[in-house]
Amino acid sequence: MSTQWLTDQLTEAPYLSLNEELTTQILTTALHEEVNKVGFRRVILGLSGGIDSALSLYLAVRAFGAENVIAVRMPYKQSSQNSLDDAEEAILDTGVKSLTVDITPQIDAYFERFPDASPLRRGNKMARERMTILYDLSAHYEALVVGTSNRTELLLGYGTQYGDSASAINPIGDLYKTQVRQLSRYVGVPNSILSKSPSADLWENQTDEGEIGFSYFDMDRVFYHMLDLKWDRRALHKQGFSDTLIDAVNRRIIRNQFKRVMPVILKVSNRTVGIDFRYLRDWGM
Amino acid sequence: MKVALAQIRPHLGNVAKNIEIHKQMIKQAKEEGVELLIFPELSLMGYNLLDLTYDVACTMDSEEVQEIVSESKGIDIAFGIVERSPDHILYNSAIYASYGSVQSVHRKVYLPTYGMFDEARYFGRGEKIRAFDTRFGRVGMLICEDMWHPSAPYLLAQDRAELLIVLANSPARGVHAKGLGTQDSWDLILTSQAQFYGMFIACTQRVGTEDGVTFFGNSTAVDPFGDTLVHGPLFEESLVTFDLDLDMVRRARFTTPILRDENTDLVIRELTRIQQHRRGE
């Protein structure tokens, strides 16, 4: 399957293009250091069969070697077989240790009490269930949890708080989706993963872009001009971005800010955690 | 004259560990016959200290500082600390140590407090930019952001510095299709400033990552003609050594006498006028 479409996108929007070797070097070097310095030698991550977790996997393998990376597949009974197969292909290709935990029993047991629960509740519950499994296995394998959320979805808030957004370290959180695709192609993520439509895989034929209403390429381009270049609306119009697109992504960014911060703490003391008690995680390391 | 850039990976707020790293580098440099060894900004402390700034701050006569200063025998050493002044103001400072004692201190003047930087929240601002004499010749020191203000190397050049030492901590950011934005900027600044003033510039950058922010290294030395003498590696610790012939300063300034022709009277006159205008006078 050709990835000419990706080459075309990067040609159309060269400002989204990254130096692949350098970016990979920064991400793998930093990933290695940030994990090692807190006393871990191994990492663990959830592998959905999608491109984001695949890229995190391939970067982790470069940083730690396949023998120190554990991939966990956590399907629900409605998850597509394609996703499972794609995850399997990445596991075989990288040679990492893997295990599969079917989350159906625990999800179904819970929703027996709430049979009318909305798809949103079910999707969030699944994402958080997967998080608790990863964190449990993290303790078992003494492996730090690696995140798989990209910059576009962090900005959109297209994820579950304390679910798929939870991790100890996220190597791809500063990459737009288009850049995730570019880097994935560079590190050798299988073509079947690279070329399919991104999906949260919560119900049949769900796609991110169908649900959000815009293509990732359009959103990445408008994000770049709005956030990286700080262009105003007039300049964005000139570049051909519509009010519909600008307003939609703007609304999402603002509405979902709560997903990007730690819980709000009500101030009483003179040194409140998160406000004026300020230290990096890497304190003393 | 043999100079080395100590491209190290400091541990955040772990001064004891950083002293060890310094001593190891100094030992290696001495073995290689290095006469001047330059560490990066805040080399003894780490960079993004936030509230740790208060905890790690050292007075000039503290044991931690003196441990490094006392090593400066047979080798001159420039290194970076959080300095606590007698009136308890903290400074992002560079120490030049020679013959076992502190010969000069530069307090960072331009404290970046925008975007990802928050230095003026913690540090007081240095008030001096002055060159000083060393056993090799006249030297000036600047710290990272100082170098982004052309007036800083300008003043040191006017103050007869032949060698400009820069202690820096530049984060890797602005990756683009061809390379790294911050690396491009630093290369441009160092080569142009060295050429403008016909002086050597030796700039040490750190490596390592603090909470996801990676410092890229690529420590650089440039000769008075603006040609790069040496680059340290990207992302890796290294002792980057090079030879420096100070007579090259004479040759560069004979070839392009920009320093000779500089009209400081005019600059002072015009700056005075501009200042008065800004004050609304």
UniProtKB/TrEMBL annotation, chain A:
Name the EC number(s): 6.3.1.5
Q: Name one GO molecular function term.
A: ATP binding
InterPro entries the UniProt entry points to: NAD/GMP_synthase, NAD_synthase, NH(3)-dep_NAD(+)_synth, Rossmann-like_a/b/a_fold
Q: What class of enzyme is it?
A: ligase
GO CC terms of this entry? cytoplasm
Enumerate the residues binding Mg(2+): D52, E153
Name the pathway it acts in: Cofactor biosynthesis; NAD(+) biosynthesis; NAD(+) from deamido-NAD(+) (ammonia route): step 1/1
Q: Which reaction does it catalyse?
A: deamido-NAD(+) + NH4(+) + ATP = AMP + diphosphate + NAD(+) + H(+)
Q: What residues does ATP bind to? A: G46, L47, S48, G49, G50, I51, D52, S53, T148, K177, S199
What keywords were assigned to this record?
ATP-binding, Ligase, Magnesium, Metal-binding, NAD, Nucleotide-binding
Signal peptide, first to last residue = none
Specify the domain of life of the species encoding this protein: Bacteria
Checking SUPFAM superfamilies in the record gives: Adenine nucleotide alpha hydrolases-like
Q: Tell me, what is an example of a GO biological process annotation in this record?
A: NAD+ biosynthetic process
Please give the Pfam families that the UniProt record associates with this protein: NAD_synthase
Give every NAD/GMP synthase domain span. 27-263
Record-annotated residues binding deamido-NAD(+)? Answer: R128
Under the heading HAMAP family, the entry gives: NadE_ammonia_dep (MF_00193)
The subunit field of the Swiss-Prot or TrEMBL record says: Homodimer.
| Protein family | Belongs to the NAD synthetase family.
Q: What does this protein do?
A: Catalyzes the ATP-dependent amidation of deamido-NAD to form NAD. Uses ammonia as a nitrogen source.
- Which protein, by its recorded name, is this? NH(3)-dependent NAD(+) synthetase
Q: Which gene encodes it?
A: nadE
Automatic annotation (TrEMBL), chain B:
Question: InterPro entries, alphabetically?
Answer: Aliph_Amidase/BUP, C-N_Hydrolase, C-N_Hydrolase_sf
The record places domain CN hydrolase at 1-246
Q: Which PROSITE patterns match?
A: CN_HYDROLASE (PS50263)
Q: Which residues cross the membrane?
A: none
Instruction: Set out the biological process GO terms recorded for this chain's protein.
Output: putrescine biosynthetic process from arginine
- Alphabetized Pfam families for the sequence: CN_hydrolase
Q: Which CDD domains match?
A: nitrilase_8 (cd07586)
What's a single GO MF annotation on this record?
N-carbamoylputrescine amidase activity
Q: Which UniProt keywords apply?
A: Hydrolase
What is this protein identified as?
Answer: Putative amidohydrolase
From which source organism is this entry? Baia soyae
